[in-house]
């Protein structure tokens, strides 16, 4: 955190922040603006994801952006991950296409329960198969390692054969309707593709990290969800892509989880040192985006999970009050929150999982780089970077990898907010010990 200008968490850390950092309990997460805040720009109704002057590296080649909808032509700056980023965008976009097809005509039979009783759909499996297949086709010469949420164990059961056939048909239909790849896959190919996601990840080498549908509950409700794909290299997130098929291209700040009549479907992408971008799904041109620059918590809106089971709403409400936030929380599912934050729809993201829950790397890897490349900061409340290097040991509860993130906050990092956050940590500790 010391290297991140503007928030002085290392030197200016409050006693409570420091106490939290040194306790055995994992500290909450903060996403804080990294640069000196600019004057506040009200985020509605004017979209904020206008192309900006490049920071350390070249940004879009053209900036004829005018309305936020007709984006400028953007060419990502060259970096060693350009090929991988293009493949990731392709894979996530195709997976989104499959998910949209399923969501349009969601059948009862498409929904199953995993061993932990969480829902899983043919779209989760189909999305994972597509991403795995596309990455392998686009990057044939690279050693392939994928840490992903789903595996095929349930699909291998006798009673799942019809479901498996349906997933295979969905994968083939998606490829043929999109047209880039003239391939036809078998059920065995699909099983292999899904199980390619069994990598353990870890601190060395390159590993793709995938949540094929983040926010499955939102997906089932017809609300927000995301296909979230990131690439780790030596334990660090180097690129991330979020496909959010139901996210309006304009601000989500007042939607409270539900999609609107406006143009929807956003693809966020970021690679380290090159900024964050947004484009309409299936449209080629991207615009550079940046986080909200509000200096006043009273003007800031904050995001949290739609599902109370995923995050303590009472606690985040109390913290938001402490911070001086006046607007009601915007509750949306999935890492679409990270995308919306990255383009300035809101200023703060609070996440307080219930006691004992351990976060998964695929629930934060892509979103965190989109936010940080848009000028935000994603850390825990002690100012520590999120650690994606611990890999996955994939225990029987599917919760082994990883780090705990009791909360996520995104703000501009001005001292008043940091002070208030230390107060919020007091509340957090209080609730956790209840
Ligand atoms: N009890 C719990 N506490 C916190 N997060 C949980 C949870 N149960 C599931 N999740 C995670 O929360 C994700 C959804 O995030 P959000 O709450 O921001 O919408 C889920 O992703 P999946 O839908 O991929 O399972 C899942 O990984
Ligand atoms: Mg998922």
Supply the key terms.
434 residues; alpha/beta; D-Maltodextrin-Binding Protein, domain 2; Fructose-1,6-Bisphosphatase, Chain A, domain 1; 2 domains; 3-stranded mixed beta sheet; 15 strands; disordered N terminus; binds magnesium ion; hydrolase; Inositol_monoP_metal-BS; magnesium; 3'(2'),5'-bisphosphate nucleotidase activity; Inositol_monophosphatase-like
Structural notes for this entry:
By secondary structure, the protein is an alpha/beta fold. 30% of the residues lie in helices and 16% in strands. It has helices at residues 9-12, 15-22, 82-104, 122-138, 161-178, 187-195, 216-221, 313-323, 336-342, 365-373, 415-432, and strands spanning 29-32, 111-113, 119-121, 146-148, 206-214, 226-233, 236-248, 264-271, 276-280, 287-289, 302-304, 330-331, 348-349, 379-380, 410-411. Strands 4-5-6-7-8-9-10 form a seven-stranded mixed beta sheet, with helices on both faces. It has a three-stranded mixed beta sheet with strand order 14-1-15, with helices on one face. A three-stranded parallel beta sheet has the order 12-11-13, with helices on both faces. α3 (82-104) packs across α5 (161-178). It starts with 8 loop residues before the first helix and ends with a helix. The chain binds adenosine-3'-5'-diphosphate (A3P) and magnesium ion. Mg(2+) binds at residues 149, 211, 213-214, 363. Residues 13-24, 54-69 have a biased composition (Low complexity). It catalyses: 3'-phosphoadenylyl sulfate + H2O = adenosine 5'-phosphosulfate + phosphate; adenosine 2',5'-bisphosphate + H2O = AMP + phosphate; adenosine 3',5'-bisphosphate + H2O = AMP + phosphate. This is 3'(2'),5'-bisphosphate nucleotidase.
């Amino acid at each position: 955190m010391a290297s991140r200008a503007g928030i002085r968490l290392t030197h200016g850390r409050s006693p409570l922040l420091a106490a939290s950092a040194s306790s055995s309990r994992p500290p909450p997460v903060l996403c804080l603006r990294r640069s000196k805040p600019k004057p506040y720009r009200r985020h509605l109704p004017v979209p904020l994801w206008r192309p900006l002057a490049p920071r350390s590296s070249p940004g879009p080649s053209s900036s004829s952006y005018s309305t936020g909808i007709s984006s400028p032509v953007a060419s990502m700056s060259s970096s060693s991950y350009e090929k991988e980023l293009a493949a990731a965008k392709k894979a996530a976009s195709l997976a989104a296409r499959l998910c949209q097809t399923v969501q349009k005509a969601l059948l009862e039979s498409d929904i199953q329960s995993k061993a932990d009783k969480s829902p899983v759909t043919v779209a989760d499996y189909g999305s994972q198969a597509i991403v795995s297949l596309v990455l392998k086709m686009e990057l044939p010469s690279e050693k392939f390692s994928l840490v992903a949420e789903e595996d095929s164990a349930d699909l291998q059961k006798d009673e799942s054969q019809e479901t498996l056939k349906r997933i295979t048909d969905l994968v083939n239909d998606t490829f043929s309707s999109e047209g880039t790849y003239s391939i036809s896959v078998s059920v065995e190919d699909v099983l292999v593709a899904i199980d390619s996601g069994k990598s353990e990840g870890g601190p060395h080498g390159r590993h793709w990290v995938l949540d094929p549908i983040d926010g499955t509950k939102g997906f089932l409700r017809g609300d927000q969800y995301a296909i979230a794909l990131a690439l780790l290299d030596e334990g660090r997130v180097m690129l991330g892509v979020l496909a959010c098929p139901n996210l309006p291209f304009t601000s989500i700040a007042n939607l409270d989880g539900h999609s609107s009549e406006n143009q929807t479907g956003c693809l966020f992408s970021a690679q380290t040192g090159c900024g964050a971008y947004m484009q309409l799904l299936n449209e080629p041109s991207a615009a550079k985006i940046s986080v909200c620059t509000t200096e006043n918590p009273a003007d800031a809106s904050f995001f949290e999970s739609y599902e109370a089971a995923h995050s303590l709403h009472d606690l985040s409400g109390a913290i938001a009050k402490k911070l001086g936030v006046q607007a009601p929380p915007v509750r949306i599912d999935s890492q679409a929150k990270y995308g919306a934050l990255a383009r300035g729809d809101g200023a703060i993201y609070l996440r307080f999982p219930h006691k004992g829950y351990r976060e998964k790397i695929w629930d934060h890897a892509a979103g965190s780089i989109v936010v940080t490349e848009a000028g935000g900061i994603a850390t825990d409340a002690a100012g520590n970077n999120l650690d994606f290097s611990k890999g996955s040991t994939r225990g029987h509860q599917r919760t082994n990898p990883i780090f705990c993130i009791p909360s996520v906050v995104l703000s501009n990092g001005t001292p008043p907010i940091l002070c208030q956050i230390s107060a919020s940590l007091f509340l957090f500790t209080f609730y956790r010990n209840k």
